[in-house]
């Protein structure tokens, strides 16, 4: 006896009434043992403007939230184990789940968006609880912050990408200490010492006793002084 897998039709809007009636008639006239596994929202076959066919539940928003948080936690564990490349992969997977969540919630344009632009869509949805919204927002910021931290541990550091991730965090949370400090470090190594000093001083306001911040401020100010002396010498 042949095995019929689930039949999933997302909507009957594209079917004419005649075709819909014919499909339903064929279904009910087929012996029960041979019927395909169709999940219908309206067992009687009447269409009331919504989707007639029930979508599978494995992509419910709560499931996507759980997967995103799981990937983030796995990334954190990989970072603690100094498996930085694996951690980067896990954090990216978490961000992709956030993007997938927006698809589930009905945003038709998520394919053209970067993960950092997705949270406004989530915040407008009534599908997620306030707790879930907060968890996803925090997860996004933590993933970008952690991605920057992982990159700084690599043998060849992509400071441009570190800067990019940190600025995404600061766009949402302007006083985030880690993002401020790492932005300063990235700008320092990219040779933009004025911007480096700005972000380092902002991070110093958050943590005045942090020795790493103090050291980078000193290094940056020394670079600025040397550049000023060089420019003055060249001008004369």
UniProtKB/TrEMBL annotation:
Keyword Phosphoprotein: yes
TPR repeat copies, ranges: 177-210
Entry similarity comment: Belongs to the TTC9 family.
UniProt cross-references to Pfam families, sorted A to Z: TPR_1 (PF00515)
Stated name of the protein: Tetratricopeptide repeat protein 9A
GO cellular component: cytosol; endomembrane system; membrane; mitochondrial envelope
UniProt-listed PANTHER family: PEPTIDYLPROLYL ISOMERASE (PTHR46512), TETRATRICOPEPTIDE REPEAT DOMAIN 9 (PTHR46512:SF5)
GO MF term (any one): protein folding chaperone
Keywords: Phosphoprotein, Repeat, TPR repeat
Keyword Nucleotide-binding found: no
Highest taxon of source: Eukaryota
TM region positions: none
Native species: Seriola dumerili
GO biological process, one term: negative regulation of apoptotic process
């Amino acid at each position: 006896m042949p095995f019929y897998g689930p039949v999933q039709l997302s909507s009957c809007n594209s079917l004419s009434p005649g075709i819909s009636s014919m499909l339903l008639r064929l279904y009910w006239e087929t012996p029960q043992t041979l019927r395909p596994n169709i999940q219908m929202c309206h067992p009687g076959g009447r269409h009331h403007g919504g989707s007639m066919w029930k979508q599978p539940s494995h992509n419910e928003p709560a499931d996507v939230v759980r997967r995103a948080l799981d990937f983030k936690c796995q990334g954190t564990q990989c970072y603690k184990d100094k498996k930085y490349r694996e951690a980067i992969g896990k954090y990216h997977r978490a961000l992709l789940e956030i993007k997938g969540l927006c698809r589930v919630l009905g945003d038709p344009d998520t394919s053209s968006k970067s993960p950092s632009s997705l949270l406004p869509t989530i915040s407008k949805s009534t599908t997620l609880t306030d707790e879930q919204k907060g968890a996803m927002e925090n997860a996004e910021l933590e993933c970008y912050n952690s991605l920057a931290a992982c990159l700084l541990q690599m043998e060849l550091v992509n400071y441009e990408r570190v800067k990019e991730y940190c600025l995404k965090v600061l766009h949402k949370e302007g006083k985030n200490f880690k993002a401020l400090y790492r932005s300063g470090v990235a700008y320092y190594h990219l040779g933009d010492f004025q911007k480096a000093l700005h972000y380092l001083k902002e991070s110093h306001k958050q943590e005045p006793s942090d020795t790493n911040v103090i050291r980078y401020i000193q290094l940056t100010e020394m670079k600025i002084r040397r550049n000023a002396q060089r420019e003055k010498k060249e001008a004369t």
